[in-house]
Input
Amino acid sequence: EVIKHILILTYSTINSFLFLQLAAQVLDDLDDEDIGFGLVDSKKERAVAKKLGLLEVDSIYIFADDEIIEYDGELAADTLLEFLYDVIEEPVEIISNDRELKGFHHIEEDIKLMGYFKSAKSSHFTEYDDAAEEFHPLIKFFATFEAKIAKKLNLKMNEVDFYEPFMNKPVSIPGKPYIEDDIVSFIEEHDRPTLRKLEPHSMYEIWEDDINRQHIVAFAEESDPDGYEVLEILKEVAQENTENPDLSIIWIDPDDFPLMVPYWEKTFGIDLSSPQIGVVDVEDADSVWMEMDDEENMPTADELDTWIRRRDVWNNQPW
Output
């Protein structure tokens, strides 16, 4: 048994109805799994919620073994279902051959870690696995027991590399061999990437993780040539500023949020049929957007870097 219960705190019968509707859709697809849905009334059952560790109203909490995972994403059955499939998987994925290694390298939108250990029985792997459970399934943990795979990754025995999204090179976690707390502490210090993608399963968590109320936001469709070009420019800017803790860029692919496009266009006064880059105040949605002089010529990385540095409009402070 992996998943025990999914619970939601709600103030209204409307939210209760929506949750039960969502539960029915998810259970229809997961009828072979041992999954139970429960509802905790936030008015009548506060003591129960407190005992269970449920802190936020209108949130979904997943109980998996001894872990409590807060689902902070879109309330859509397909999105929650995909998230649950990730929860069901083991916290650490083992890479044993070149095909699996190729798949590992293709993951660039997520924080990921890779460790090299003697075997699954190694005490050092156990510490790594315990750390993975703390972040599962929001951060992807991988490991290999194969010397030839470790050599291709330049990993030494009991060493763990941390990969920031969209970065060319990983960072080795210092101080090997590690205990669980070493890995957890390092991740907690580095869990705000310079460039990250807004994903349906974690959209609220990412949006609420602002810097001084601001987000640098880039709307770009990866499938569109102009959007792809802008994304490559964003990667270059992020790679040049990866050591800067005050820079956080959120990339939003409008194709991932078709129902949100009209809202964003109206709120920000922009046209999302072409790429847009701006600075957004997360509290009042005030925003400033970069002027694209010519759709045929997207800004260079240097031009975008300069524009971002000049647009710290609410603090009037350079990074």
The CA atoms of residues 226 and 295 lie 8 Å apart. The first helix runs from residue 13 to 29. The first strand starts at residue 3 and ends at 10. Confidence is low (pLDDT under 50) at residues 9-14, 313-319.
